[in-house]
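Input (alpha-L-fucosidase):
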Amino acid sequence: MHKMNRRQRDFTVKCLGLVSCLIIVFFLFRYLTSAKSSELSDGYEYDNPFEVVDNTKKKQFDIKQHLQNVIDNPLEIKQHVKNIIQEVLPQQNEPTESSSIDSNRYSPNWEALDKRPLPKWFDEAKIGIFIHWGLFSVPSFGSEWFWWSWKGKEATHKIETKAFMKKNYRSNYTYADFAPDFTAEFFNATEWAEVFKNSGAKYVVLTAKHHEGYTNWPSAYSYSWNSLAIGPKKDLVGQLGAAVREKDLKFGLYHSLYEWFHPLYLRDKRNNFQTQDFVRAKAMPELYELVNVYKPDIIWSDGEWEAEDTYWNSTQFIAWLYNDSPVKDTVVTNDRWGKSVRCKHGGFLGCNDRYNPGILQKRKWENCMTIDKKSWGFRREANLKDYLTIEKLLLTMVETISCGGNILINIGPAHDGTISAVYLERLSQMGEWLKVNGEAIYFSVPWNFQNDHVNQHVWYTKRVIGDQASVYAIALKWPHNNKLQLAGPITGDITNVTMLGYNTPMKWTADPSGGIHIDIPFISYKDIPCKWAWVFKMTGLTNS
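Output:
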């Protein structure tokens, strides 16, 4: 038999490696293209999300070409498959009911999961920053629900969105054509983290994946439809997570369970969610991947409302998260895990967007709200009046925290990675206020009263350090004639009143019918501690 020389052997090995890669790519391609949009019959208009135009090169960009590029670099596909097998799949062993035998473990049912104590850091942190950033940031028109407004059935802003597309884009433009323009060219994770740190926030939540299905990390389950494959060519989740934690902030990830136009999800939906192909192939593997790779402090779930939690396998995932995940002792979850779950089950309750009940709640809750009154994503057409003033932002924060909630304040960066000046200004103003008054916010707990009965512009918090309890009256408007009347506090012999940032004790008198009258001395403009919302600290109250 003819004996091969070294060059022939090397050539044979390379050929075998190439054939192996081709086989892997073939099955990936078959999976991604198995369900065609022409087969859908639910009334939506669909694009092919895997065929886009690279506007920088003026040529077609599609998944076939991208996979061919991967073939040219066999090491990339080998590492890609290795990551799936070694890092993610072994971690997906779903817990069973037998886990209830161990009293330190949580069974996959809401009764058991709701008994898990909320990690202390979340209640102490109080303030977070929410970031809505994705392909919707490219058109930056209407809202982050741009695709739905353009293509969705019974969309509320369909006429305006279609007119916008007709005016600005060619007739055959698809949603996926926005992907190459999601450049993030000016994104600097360190600078973002510095902004968030200076805002006074203690945690940050980034949209890892919104309803469009595009992932801001190189997900093994969103091949060619992620921030490393097309668009920024960066791992946005990884970069921001590292920078945020460098500033000693907690890092959470928003993940949409459902996707607007994923064929497997739409097929499950047509089957009345009696099948779980999308959940098993996409939604749940992504969540396990996010947890194992990035170890988030918060899993902020969304997009759950069309199906029950049994379809999503929510309790199985959360039980694994609490029992066996690398963040089992520190992770926090919200309540968006099935259409009958919201505002009932989860680590904390969020109920609805901008949830702000104005009264004390029995369970820990969060008010996720946005500085732009009309959108969570960046809008180029927004006017200054569309954004919350700092006064309104502080009012919402104080109301929320007085009633036992956390506040998650949303901003929407632009497609190029810049944060608009109005967002930067609001965050800077908030940070300026918290530097003076953070004592009344962080580590605080609700007091006996949330809102004063006499002065509706005053909200209360309480903080206990050692044996001393301090009650904070946060006045959102400067007291008329420098006199502040409060009905809630009951004074005693050792009651002391100061204004945070102005340490001179203030004179006060007890109201015969209960309450206190505080006389505020004249304070010059240069000595006044802050520009908005003044905090009066009271110690030695008999009802503290």
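The longest helix spans residues 6-32.
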